[in-house]
Amino acid sequence: MDENQTKVVREFILAGFSQTQSIETGLFVLFLLFYVSTWVGNVLIMVTVVYDNHLNSSPMYFLLGNLSFLDLCYSTVTTPKLLADFLDNEKLIPYGQCIVQLFFLHVVGAAEMFLLTVMAYDRYVAICRPLHYTTIMSRGLCCVLVAASWMGGFVHSTVQTILTARLPFCGPNQVDNFFCDVPPVIKLACADTFVIELLMVSNSGLISTSSFVVLVSSYATILVKIRSKEGRRKALSTCGSHLMVVTLFFGPCIFIYARPFSTFSVDKMVSVLYNVITPMLNPLIYTLRNKEVKSAMRKLWDRSGLTWKKQET
């Protein structure tokens, strides 16, 4: 029997971005700023939604708070390991940790796709059926939809992880990315993965593409149903931030997962977009284009300032 066929891979090497230490150090500082900004922005949104009575009672902002939590989870699955690898020349990840990272990446990623679809439905009801909005989008239904998003992500990721973990790995062990994901990992398997690749593309690719189509269709339906120019302007203002988030998140995901698992030189940069950049930009997109959130943040800031002054006196 060939020696390679008896070898069992116990750890993978992540390719990273560069082998030059000075470049790695510069990237470490840059991505650390991205990660800190992600935490500050998303935590600020979550705290604002929780402590502002008006936002807390609104289904839209309840869902927004959950989206911020998902963004934190999504970024944390990959970025801390990436930051550590910038300072480590070897960039090793044990096989078990690689599978765990892959699992949670797809749990949170798919849950965010489903939640963005729920948020599009929320906007449809709010704009097209405003008189029935609070009745339809009750707190109970919102909680069920959020739980269903997480459950959908769990089921999706379980399928992906089981198919990947069952493959034998006995040869090359360098993952051509900065984290463990299905496409680059199964390329290293010592087996014919054609059928598994088709199953995974139909799974991840179908979820990302169909969710994107549903989202765009829902926003198009909103604009068609609104006749007045003023109403259309308000709808565009309300849905504009959602469309920006959808484009930034779903575009790279469709590029990566809705095609056969072939490697392109731009894959790493595309992965940076939906793993690092989008979770950081979401708070900026929602706050800069939303007067209610900015007003609530100012009130929260003023309240905390007054509390601090009282404690000093």
UniProtKB/TrEMBL annotation:
Subcellular location field: Cell membrane; Membrane
Keyword Membrane: yes
Membrane topology: Multi-pass membrane protein
Superkingdom of the source species: Eukaryota
InterPro entries, per the entry: GPCR_Rhodpsn (IPR000276), GPCR_Rhodpsn_7TM (IPR017452), Olfact_rcpt (IPR000725), Olfactory_Receptors (IPR050427)
Coiled coil: none
Pfam families recorded: 7tm_4 (PF13853)
Chief site of localization: membrane
Transmembrane segments annotated in the record for this chain: 27-49, 99-121, 141-159, 205-224, 236-257, 269-288
UniProt GO MF annotations: G protein-coupled receptor activity; olfactory receptor activity
One GO CC annotation: plasma membrane
Keywords for the protein's UniProt record, in alphabetical order: Cell membrane, G-protein coupled receptor, Membrane, Olfaction, Receptor, Sensory transduction, Transducer, Transmembrane, Transmembrane helix
G-protein coupled receptors family 1 profile domain: residues covered: 41-286
Family indicated by similarity: Belongs to the G-protein coupled receptor 1 family.
Its biological purpose: Putative odorant or sperm cell receptor.
Protein name, as recorded: Olfactory receptor
Organism (species): Ovis aries
